Amino acid sequence: MTEMFVQLKLGDQRYKSKTLVKSANPQWREQFDFHYFSDRMGILDIEVWGKDSKKHEERLGTCKVDISALPLKQANCLELPLESCQGSLLMLIILTPCTGVSVSDLCVCPLADPSERKQITQRYCLQNSLQDMKDVGILQVKVLKAADLLAADFSGKSDPFCLLELGNDRLQTHTIYKNLNPEWNKVFTFPIKDVHDVLEVTVFDEDGDKPPDFLGKVAIPLLSIRDGQPNCYALKNKDLEHAFKGVIYLEMDLIYNPVKASIRTFTPREKRFIEDSRKLSKKILSRDVDRVKRLTMAIWNTLQFLKSCFQWESTLRSTVAFVVFLVTVWNFELYMLPLALLLLFFYNFIRPIKGKAGSTQDSQESIDIDEEEEDDDKESEKKGLIERIYMVQDIVSTVQNILEEIASFGERIKNTFNWTVPFLSFLACLILAVATVTLYLIPLRYIVLIWGINKFTKKLRNPYAIDNNELLDFLSRVPSDVQKVQYSELKVCSSHSPIRKKRSAL
């Protein structure tokens, strides 16, 4: 075994740690959040796994923790001996009471009561910004109805129900049988841990003991919610790239504390429960190659522009560039660097919206690729050939993931400056403004000294601190071009509007 990882399971909730090179004392230093309900069994199952160079996995040891026996609101440092294996696992477990999810009927809507709404608003006001930092806000979703759904049964009807997902929270409506225009009229309440999460609403067809059939899906970023307004959303396919049949009517209210949300932006995102790994896809691989190619071409064109200035291909351009270079270098101060980035934000803010709409359209066109033919899983008689195919698939899948990470990183930087998410761009401007003033007033050596002291003493002040990069945590909240298309709202056909329906009834 050359690599090691840990799997944790509490009921249906499962996590997998990052994979480390095998050593006698591996340190993962990762945090996982579970939902523990006091009226259920609270046994946390932990397994340590090893993996060899051929990707064969073997369980090395196990241990269990009874969550119900642990005290609340304190850090429980546990050294757990592993069964069937030498060694032990050191864990830090904290039980924290929190606001849970809830489901209710439309007649008992929590935020409809003025006194209760006032109490919730007071809880997330600016005066309480430094209390309970993990409780960022609350989201209320009214699932009203759906219309014109796909007929999944032979009878020409469907048995639809609606599943709502926000981070690791999942709630669903009841099933309405034999209906293509169901009305659920349910209210769902979610606690908000990260205001940059995305609410996913999926409509399924109940199919008895079989897995439910997909009827449509929509993804709504929390920061794009229009409070208290009923909205009609056109359903999309599973990849959220193309329109699907039917619409769904939702009404949402979001109350959150902007200070808590801003601080949460610079911490690691909550990890998702283990899901099925994404399969190798020629379509996604081709799309990621195209994204990286566009990013590379943008950098190449910038370098060519600078080279043309040095080569005096255009006398006017080279003269202006030469004068700007002399003036900038002669008068340059360090505080001018964040100031220049601020000017770039300002330029993109006042730029016509036409350019932004065009970039979204380009992203949509780049994603509109013909569906792949699924002929990759043909059986072979020779075992050696099968292993080689799996090895090639593993390599290509790794390359696909690397290409996606590179493309997403570049697109997120671009979308930060393009004001794709105004909250994040404004937050970046605020940080740059503070950095400009700080660099102007305080000598650089003092800033470097404070930074170094903080880095060197961080482990001494908190031995169990989890390493993170604030800049990467910030960029992880900015959507890539693919996510922009997935989160974009499709235009609803006019046939679903109430006015059109009244006219057709007449």
Automatic annotation (TrEMBL):
It is found in: Membrane. Coiled coil: none annotated. Residues 1-80, 114-235 form the C2 domain. Residues 356-382 are annotated as: Disordered. The chain crosses the membrane at residues 320-347, 423-451. It comes from the Eukaryota. It is a multi-pass membrane protein. Residues 365-378 have a biased composition (Acidic residues). The keyword Repeat applies. The keyword DNA repair does not apply. It holds the Pfam family PRT_C. Keywords: Calcium, Membrane, Metal-binding, Repeat, Transmembrane, Transmembrane helix. Belongs to the MCTP family. PANTHER family: C2 DOMAIN-CONTAINING PROTEIN, MULTIPLE C2 AND TRANSMEMBRANE DOMAIN-CONTAINING PROTEIN 2. This is Multiple C2 and transmembrane domain-containing protein 2 isoform X3. It comes from Erinaceus europaeus. The gene is MCTP2.
